[in-house]
Amino acid sequence: MRADATGRVLHDPKGGSFWFDAGALCLDFAHTGGEGRYAVFETLHEPADLAEWLSQPPLAAILTVPATAGELTAAKALRQAIWEAAHARAARRALPCGAVDVINHAAAAASLVPELAADGTTARWATPVGAVQALSTLAREMIGLLSGPLSERFRVCAGDNCPLVFVDSSRPGARRWCAMERCGNRHKLRALRARRATEP
């Protein structure tokens, strides 16, 4: 339930993986797959895949009610809406009305409720814990980002043809890359080659 421990390992269908921290859990969720050309990155194939993703830290929402096929469909719709809204905000475009409607609809459901454990030092989610509640929590986080102090900090990775989107919460607000070890290093390598090519 730590709100500051975001980030997930992303896997490339062509091979390789890397750690990507989108800066917010809802944005991490937006990178679990996608539509069209992003379908090759799909990780939520079955309701159980959704339940597994939600159960991981920092959300740690271990469902007490099994996820359904309908909830998986709703999750993918919310994921797409978050993706579209984040990219629109990063490009300083108006948010798509359809994406706003989906996010608002998901947020309207009851969200996860934190509960202090009997030891008085740890917390958990009060039961029942359902997928709809977890999705509402993600949608509400996205609303908070879009309407809060980080609303102008949405960025798309500056790497060539890299569509990964993140919110830059660093103090200087100078983050450019999805991950330094991926697109950042590729950029540095290309710049080095370009300099060497122009040297006498």
Overview of this structure, please?
The protein is mainly alpha-helical. The termini are far apart. The longest helix has 22 residues, at 69-90. The chain is 42% helix and 10% strand. It has one domain (8-155): Orthogonal Bundle (Jann2411-like fold), CATH 1.10.3300. Helix 3 runs parallel beside helix 5. The model has no long low-confidence stretch (mean pLDDT 89). The chain is built from six helices and six strands, in the order ββααααββαββα. Strand 1 and strand 2 (17-20) form a beta hairpin. A two-stranded antiparallel sheet has the order 1-2. InterPro entries: ABATE (IPR010852), ABATE_dom_sf (IPR023286), Znf_CGNR (IPR021005). Pfam families: ABATE, zf-CGNR.
Strand content: 5-15%
CATH domain class: Mainly Alpha
Named at the architecture level, the CATH assignment is: Orthogonal Bundle
Domain count: the total is: 1
Largest sheet: 2 strands, antiparallel
List the helices and strands and how they pair.
Blueprint: E1 8-11, E2 17-20, H1 25-29, H2 47-55, H3 69-90, H4 97-108, E3 114-116, E4 123-125, H5 131-147, E5 154-156, E6 165-167, H6 180-198
Antiparallel strand pairs: 1-2, 3-4, 5-6
Helix pairs in contact: 3-4, 3-5, 4-5
